Amino acid sequence: MSRGILIAIDRGGTFCDVIAEIPGQEDYIFKLLSVDPLNYKDAPREGIRRVLERAHGRSIPKEEKLKLDSIESIRMGTTVATNALLERKGSPVLLVTTKGFGDVLKIGNQTRPHIFDLTARKLGHLYEQVLEVDERITLEGFSEGGGSKLELCKENEDDNVVKAQSGDVIRIIRKPDLNDVKAKLQQIWDQDKIKTIALSFLHSYIYPDHELQVAKVAREIGFQVSVSSELQPMIGMVSRTSSTVADAYLSPIINEYIRSFSSGFEGGIEAFGNKLLFMQSNGGLCPWYKFTGLKAILSGPAGGMVGYGETCYDLVSQKATIGFDAGGTSTDVSRYAGTLDHIFETVVSEVSLQTPQLDISTVAAGGGSILFWRNGLFVVGPDSAGSDPGPACYRKGGPLTVTDANLFLGRLCPEEFPNIFGPNHDQPLDIDTTKRKFQELTDQINKDQKNTTIELTPEEVAMGYLKVAVESMARPIRNLTEAKGLSTGDNNLACFGGSGSQFAVSLASNLGINHVSIHKYASVLSAYGILLADIVIEKQAPTSLVYAKESLETIEDRVNRLTEEAFEEYKSQNLTQFTTRVEAFLNMRYVGSDTHLLIPYTLGVEKLDKKFIQRHQNEFGFVLDRSVLVDDIQVLLVVQNSEDTKENPFEEFRSLQVTTSEIVDPLYVKKIYFEGKDWMDARVYDLDKLNEGNVIPGPAIIINSTLTILVEPHSNANILKNHVLIEVENEKKPDLSDKVVDPIQLSVFGHRFMSIAEQMGRTLQQTAISTNIKERLDFSCALFDGNGDLVANAPHVPIHLGAMSFAVKAQKEMWEGKLEQGDVLVTNHPSAGGSHLPDITVITPVLDEKNIPIFWVASRGHHADIGSIAAGSMPPNSKTIYDEGAAIVTFKLCSNGGVFDEAGITRLLYDEPAKHPGGSGTRALSDNISDLKAQVSANYKGIGLLQNLVDSFGLSVINLYMSAIQSTAEVAVRNLLKITFERFEGKKLKAIDYLDNGCAISLEINIDKRTGDAIFDFTGSGDEMYGNLNAPRAILYSAVLYVLRALISMDIPLNNGCLRPIKFKTRPGSVVDPSTEAAVVGGNVETTQRIVDVMLKAFEAAAASQGTCNNFTFGITDKANGVSFGYYETICGGSGAGPTWDGQSVVQCHTTNTRITDTELFEKRYPVIVHEYSVRTGSGGKGYHRGGDGVIRDIEFKYTGLEVSCLMERRSMAPFGLLGGQDGLRGKNYWLRKTEDGGEYRRIALDGKCTVKVSSGDRIIIQTPGGGGFGNTGGTSSKYDIVEPQPSILTGSVGNKNLIETTN
Fold it and tell me: Boundaries of each Acetophenone carboxylase-like C-terminal domain copy (predicted)?
């Protein structure tokens, strides 16, 4: 043989796919079960054995060690690491980190994974033990508000000041005592439990010396060490530490798997040399000895993206291809536009992973997605039947799934499946059970819909679920494209995976895509991509440079250095016989922004900032008058596959001559059900017998040994050399009744409405500039019907949920008959539906040709400063609304066709607040303007998407379904209230609690048993106060909506219908119905927490959570030094326990879910040093179920004259326990004032509401409250079916976007 055998293997969750190129033979392609212990120990080794049998024409006993001499290369993608992560079956890990930050991963970004989950449950961390090392560095300067212009201490002036490799100037506060570290590590080693270390120190991404010193000590003892600065030298302590722990957790599992796999070959692991390559998450191969846990997470899916990028991209037209990879247990989407798109961070099973990876998003559970009928809606997933029990047709008692719907409607060919089902794996698919279950489900749906004129058949029900499944899969694909300013229809589609080709036509039709490419190896395309992939050596280094003429030489030097390092590794891997190419990228962003774009770098080419600006404009719709920074430099050395493997089925199709060869007879004809066409005869063809140039009109099914392609009506399948290319006609949208609601279409429209709100949120987050909106994600976006009633609200900040509807209605009333095209309104005043003044709402009407509003869209964002008597616009001592900054009842932000009135809004934000005694205009005007423009952009995005719906279906239909989706939410709330009436035996629900100043929050609930209506009576609450804890009625509505949704404990539409059964009774002039001049800044963030606690107490659902947002602000306007900035954060605490759960520690509770700024970013941007951020152990209340613990946050300030404010509750009144559980500990605040001699600190207790001016060296310590305990004995049953959500399956950029919407 002139060359050896090439073998590519993708070991997935269910199947192990194998492709082998054997010289002189046809490609050998087959599938094995990934786990089949009765027949083999290891699926990949078994696959190789079968390949060698085929190649050499002889039988090889299963127990015989395999020879490698005829094999040129084994290339493998594996889910070993992913499965270990999902199942939490990794290696015991010791986390070694900076003193004061041992709880960095317990706290994380402080959000709870599921916004309406009362348990606030987070998955356990991956490490087993923590060792804190007394070492510390920090950045010498700060970047915000003119800080970058200040002169820093120089290296020659202080031995502890060093210029880091990134160019940043750092200060070494403490060096590690290596002898002490060695002694402690030796003690742990001697316990013989933990042999793996994850090492991550603060700011090691720019100054790795301390990490490397400790790593050397640990390795000398014998530990296997994952070092954060070696794995991924990027800013972000939480993500980098999480990634390092994941690497340490998974790498021993990977190593053990490789050892076990290699034991089946002659010579063992050392015999492989460079023959054994693994696919990495970044889409490149690496030798087995370079393969680590962190690189393995997307190993298999990465092969699929490489596969369709090589074989299904139109290189001539350069039209991008969307990849749709649907398997039995997961569905992945991605996009290829000539290059492999990378992201640097994703979340898998609640573990943040910071490493270069292909932008592949897991978006659904695949064919195993379970079908539900809930609250009048068809729901598909995200729960999955998995492979055991699997779908109902698998004969293991499983539920109805997407696979069952396909089988029932004739879209699968059961006779082509092997008899591997049932308890003994020896029976065929069970169509009879599937039919019976669909009949039962249809009977239930029709019973629930008896008041309508629609009666569905089982076929219509199954078809409805497939329609909803397609819609739910289309949503993330739209997010990949339309959220970047791209049209989804301007792409081609490539479908692959076990079930991808069954959805090809319906998905393309939904997305407006005309051409679908399906490779002949589509069912094993991930393995094929692995076969085609290149070896990639990656090098990366942090930098901190403004892109300018004077920095070009430095950038070039660093690119050259990284390139040299890559080639050194290339030589060490003995790869010099292959050709190479070098790809370099600059990770660029605007000053003050965190939106990074990877811009290709070419030596000698200047003005890359212009390329960044142009791409930013294309993707986000705006540019900023700011400098462009380079944060990281990445170099990829690509060791190229020797063959040109590019295929272009689209060009082949364009030049295709229809063959004169007759189409072979079909294998048989079968019945398939299609929407609106009933059962139709469809021919079933064998793909291997069709001729190039044949055109197969739909309906038809094309199959081979591993593939089933459904060709629907209104589509034609063109047979090419290596592909089936399907032309999809733009099928006319169905004519829907504007009088009668179809539950299937209602479910679809529910997805569409929510998708619009989601894409608005994505646009706002990407285009905003402030930390509050861009990082803390303190914003919400929503759409409303013509009356201003909420239709869909992407679940961002809970306290925004119901409130925005009242803001829209207020503007509607004020501007009745006065609006014109292009008008955009802005408001923040509580009298006009506002929450508190920093939350500015931008409202845009969608007008018809008579300028009458037919819809409204709105976005509400928390602005870091809008003036007021205190920096950060959260004054703890405000007495009237005028103390709190700019108060805007209404203002036309845009008019005259959409012209932004910058002068007018500047007057309102800057000039007007300064007229109030002691007041100041906004301290962050440029950020305000940028964020308001971003809110306008988000609204325009929503308008465009709404207009598309109207164009497709007509205004009357959209109005019908906007009303119907509200009715669906109404029914869910009424059912909850009826159940509550029964469980409380008809008694009124009552509860009372008190704010720290003694003001009562009182609630009495009276439920109508028959209708599910309820009166929520707050008239017993205290009077409006001369302070800022007053809560406007809009805020009250939001708090009630949040609690109702949390008690329902399942997904329902979040809209105005939720509040229709509720009648609110408040007393004008009370704390929950204050006058228009009342101060309210604390009511939005603090009183609402107490309202929620009181409601949950009345429902006996949960003990009190920490009951405060712990609002903490600081800022300054130092005109002498040209420094001006404001900063705001909310700090997590303990959640309350419930009847079946312990409270979660260190988590945001109830009406907020905002992130904390990462410590490294915090110290880079502001003049601060964080000394401690840890769990306040023991602060949760005792009980049968214990309350969660609060947190300790210790911040030192490095700039004299900063104004620091606290606005916090639960410093006097402890979070209550419930039904015998004990109270959680109250919060405490301290000010450590540096004495004049600079030696000792004076420790001063601070109130929960205070403002102080600090000097350089002063510290503020905040100890947040714990949650209350629940019960003192066992056996307490829950009155509500609180279902703890499953971990999200979403990954990639779509998963990151979901975090934006649910863990903001």
Answer: 551-729
CA quadruple 1068, 1070, 1071, 1076: dihedral sign: positive
What is the rounded average pLDDT of the residues 559-574? 88
Percent helix, strand, coil in the chain, to 5, is 30, 25, 40
Largest CA distance in the chain: 98
Structure tokens at 1037: 């509505």
Strand order in the sheet with 715-719: 361-364, 331-336, 321-326, 492-496, 515-519, 723-728, 715-719, 695-697
Residue 343 φ/ψ, nearest 5 degrees: -125, 165
948 class by beta-carbon count within 10 Å (0-12 exposed, 13-18 middle, 19+ buried): middle
pLDDT tens-digit map of 324-337? 988 766 788 888 98
Distances (CA, A) of 229 to 168, 233, 235, 915: 16, 5, 10, 51
**pTM of the full structure:** 0.84
CB 47 within 8 A of CB 32: yes
Question: What is the DSSP annotation of 1177-1222?
Answer: TT-SPPSSBPPPPEEEEEEEE-STTEEEEEE---SSSPPPPBTTPP
The DSSP symbol for 313 reads -
| Nearest partner of 870 among 805, 834, 920, judged by Cα | 920
With tokens 């639960």, the residue in question is 1210
- pLDDT number for residue 483: 56
Q: How far apart are CA 965 and CA 973, in angstroms?
A: 13
Cα-Cα end-to-end distance for the chain = 59
Nearest Cα to Cα of residue 250 among 42, 123, 85, 125: 85
* Backbone φ, ψ for residue 353 (5° rounding): -125, 115
Instruction: Give pLDDT tens digits for 1204-1258.
Output: 999 999 999 999 999 999 999 999 999 999 887 767 889 999 999 999 999 999 9
Q: Which two tokens stand for residue 776?
A: 């803390």
Q: What percent of the chain has pLDDT over 70?
A: 94
Q: In Å, how far are 176, 206, 1167, 1170 from 159, measured between CA atoms?
A: 16, 18, 21, 22
Residue 261 CB coordination number (10 Å): 22
Q: 41: buried, middle or exposed (CB in 10 Å: 19+, 13-18, 0-12)?
A: middle
How would DSSP label each residue in 1085-1131? IIIHHHHHHHHHHHTT----------EEEEEEEETTTTEEEEEEE--
Q: Which residues, in sequence order, are bridge partners of residue 1070?
A: 1023, 1073
DSSP 8-state secondary structure symbol assigned to residue 880: B
Beta bridge partners of 726: 516, 717
Query: How far apart are alpha carbons 21 and 528 in whole angstroms?
Result: 10
Please report where in the chains the tokens 């955009």 appear, as a residue. 824
Q: Using 50, 70 and 90 to split pLDDT, how confident is the model at 732?
A: low
**622, burial (CB in 10 Å: exposed 0-12, middle 13-18, buried 19+):** middle
Mean pLDDT of 786-813: 83
- 980-1014 pLDDT per residue, tens: 999 999 999 999 999 999 999 999 999 999 999 99
Pairing of strands 377-384, 492-496: unpaired
**Rounded Cα gap, residues 201 and 830, in angstroms:** 45
Nearest to 1282 by CA among 1036, 1037, 1134, 1099: 1099
CA distance to 753, 823, 938, 982, 1025, per residue, from 945 (Å) = 9, 18, 11, 43, 44
Q: What per-residue string of b and e applies to 1276-1297 under the rule 16 or more CB within 10 Å gives b?
A: bebbbebeebebbbbbbbbbbb
Opening angle at CA 475, ends 474 and 477, nearest 5: 65
Burial of 491 (0-12, 13-18, 19+ CB in 10 A): buried
